[in-house]
Amino acid sequence: xxxxxxxxxxxxxxxxxxxxxxxxxxxxxxxxxxxxxxxxxxxxxxxxxxxxxxxxxxxxxxxxxxxxxxxxxxxxxxxxxxxxxxxxxxxxxxxxxxxxxxxxxxxxxxxxxxxxxxxxxxxxxxxxxxxxxxxxxxxxxxxxxxxxxxxxxxxxxxxxxxxxxxxxxxxxxxxxxxxxxxxxxxxxxxxxxxxxxxxxxxxxxxxxxxxxxxxxxxxxxxxxxxxxxxxxxxxxxxxxxxxxxxxxxxxxxxxxxxxxxxxxxxxxxxxxxxxxxxxxxxxxxxxxxxxxxxxxxxxxxxxxxxxxxxxxx
Length: 313
Prior knowledge:
With 313 residues, the protein is α+β, with helices and mostly antiparallel strands. Helix content is 41%, strand content 20%.
């Protein structure tokens, strides 16, 4: 199966012509139910109502071709920008509407709203308003199980892990802001001639390290440390004794010279104790903080300059 390049920044602007050929139309979908932008799944492409919808679209929207994707006897009609949105939702699980508009749609919220309507009608995404004390509510988005299955099929054999569904409401704010952290770091990587190839969240890293610890627990004590050190080194993580430090986000990228490198990112919040902040810095993580937390973070690090960037949200 072909592979959709989940890190190609032009994917959101490309149309179906940019997709692997086998994803433009799957012959096995010929007799399947079509899930489009009409009010019902059975609406015909030739129906007057569907024609009226097309005529009401802006020239830019009408000119972008859709590609057909089949899953479990259903056919989904998707534009390149909608696939780009689903890809980023899958990689980060929870995203803020405004961040998607900024990074995938170049600030065009009208275009994003149009795409989200189509994805919602097809049952591929869900939305939640997250209310915060003394702050503006956030419009958050995630994939449905159906959307997760569809995007996994589209990206094919890519090792990129995808997520779906809202989890841990207390961490919605933090998790949604990780997308901003990633965008800042990946832009720097590109400026140095690198190319991001994979994103790993702490969910994936914890699962990996927990399996390694289970294996280590069955080893003789003198071998346990060597085994865990080897695991940490293999995955670009630091280790202190038998404790492997895990970042919020790890970016795997191809450097200018073609080697595979990793960068570990941490978004610090006001909930972090000073000892924890120092520990993250000592682990070699690239640290970020919201503007309101910057001074506290710097005090904890004694203004050593280890905080190289500040994320404002």
